[in-house]
From TrEMBL:
<protein>
    <submittedName>
        <fullName>Membrane lipoprotein TmpC</fullName>
    </submittedName>
</protein>
<keyword id="KW-1003">Cell membrane</keyword>
<dbReference type="InterPro" id="IPR003760">
    <property type="entry name" value="PnrA-like"/>
</dbReference>
<keyword id="KW-0472">Membrane</keyword>
<dbReference type="InterPro" id="IPR028082">
    <property type="entry name" value="Peripla_BP_I"/>
</dbReference>
<comment type="similarity">
    <text>Belongs to the BMP lipoprotein family.</text>
</comment>
<feature type="domain" description="ABC transporter substrate-binding protein PnrA-like">
    <location>
        <begin position="38"/>
        <end position="331"/>
    </location>
</feature>
<dbReference type="Pfam" id="PF02608">
    <property type="entry name" value="Bmp"/>
</dbReference>
<dbReference type="InterPro" id="IPR050957">
    <property type="entry name" value="BMP_lipoprotein"/>
</dbReference>
<keyword id="KW-0449">Lipoprotein</keyword>
<dbReference type="GO" id="GO:0005886">
    <property type="term" value="C:plasma membrane"/>
</dbReference>
<keyword id="KW-0732">Signal</keyword>
Length: 339
């Protein structure tokens, strides 16, 4: 009996040790799992545009690499730094600020937490902090092609542009589109207006309705959730629209003839991949354009756009890629190229 009791006690000790070891292993496994958190500026994670595209890239990385991903939405400017600090406290390996509105907050946080890895989507710095990777896009190149399409598709010779806020990325869309339209057909008039918001769908819709009522028959909107409102107006008024940032044809399949996309999902996925592979390199800007295959027109463009127009777009795309055509990214460059 004493022998059986001794064996039982020994087994109990071994089992307890095993369970403790198992718990320890799980904790270590959890601790070793890399994590990426993003902080949004204005707009929701499901904005059918900028934020959503960034998140989709990270969700793919989560699936491919087994990392942990998380997002925090911001309701007001004071939320930016608070959300960043929340992710720092949660020991995120990489924190990404999404949009130009996070520029100052990411820079401040980078100074306060020099050992923390950061990235900033769609904006850069004159002097890049050593622990920040700015990611920018040549949106103007995709917008230029959209302008060529618009000039060839409009029947009224009146097209429109709606921007959210005058962020550098949106301004690139504006002047790239304008330059593309005028390069293809100088007789086409362009109406331009900003919603002064990335989240006000009603404002975007109202602006679009006014443009459509004024003989505009096609609008490119680069405005986040406000742009979603503009696409709703196109659907309700049986007009044409061009989406931005991601393929927005799902919002109005018969009205959105194409989208001038920038693949934020590719950039966010690349950032996660580099983190996993130990190749994160702060202090260096990453730039994506037509040549890199990260901006361009939606794959389903041929559904609504005639073959002859698509051939024109393909030729113009090659000219942009090889440097034969330089596309302006702001008003100053536009004036220089058109004087």
């Amino acid at each position: 009996m004493k022998f059986k009791k001794l064996m039982a006690e020994t087994a109990s000790v071994v089992l307890s040790a095993s369970l403790l070891t198992g718990c320890s292993s799980k904790k270590e496994e959890s601790a070793d799992k890399l994590s990426v958190g993003i902080v949004l500026g204005e707009g929701s994670i499901n904005d059918q545009s900028f934020n959503q595209s960034t998140w989709e890239g990270l969700k793919k990385a989560e699936k491919d690499f087994g990392i942990h991903v998380k997002y925090l939405e911001s309701k007001q400017e004071s939320d930016y730094i608070q959300n960043i600090e929340t992710l720092v406290d949660e020991d995120m390996d990489l924190i990404i600020g999404v949009g130009y509105q996070l520029k100052d907050s990411i820079k401040d946080a980078a100074g306060s937490y020099p050992d923390q890895k950061f990235a900033l989507m769609d904006e850069t710095y004159d002097k890049i902090p050593e622990n920040v990777v700015p990611v920018t896009f040549k949106e103007q190149e995709a917008a230029y092609l959209a302008g060529v399409i618009a000039a060839n598709m409009t029947k009224t010779k009146n097209v429109g542009f709606i921007g959210g806020l005058p962020a550098p990325g949106v301004v690139k869309y504006q002047y790239g589109f304008k330059y593309g339209v005028e390069s293809a057909n100088k007789d086409v008039k362009i109406s331009e207006q900003y919603a002064n918001s990335f989240s006000d769908q009603a404002k975007g819709k109202s602006i679009a309705k006014q443009m459509y009522a004024g003989n505009v028959d096609l609008i490119l909107s680069a405005a986040g959730d406000a742009g979603t409102g503009a696409i709703e107006a196109a659907k309700e008024n049986n007009k044409l629209a061009i989406g931005a940032d991601r393929d927005q044809s799902d919002l109005a399949p018969e009205n959105v003839i194409t989208s001038a996309i920038k693949k934020l999902n590719v950039a966010s996925y690349d950032l996660a991949k580099e983190l996993v592979e130990g190749k994160y390199k702060g202090g260096v800007e990453k730039v994506y354009g037509l040549k890199e295959g990260a901006v361009g027109m939606a794959d389903n463009s041929g559904k609504h756009i005639p073959e002859n127009v698509m051939k024109i777009v393909e030729k113009e795309s090659e000219k942009v890629k090889n440097g034969e055509i330089k596309v302006p990214k702001n008003e100053a460059e536009y004036k220089q190229l058109t004087k």
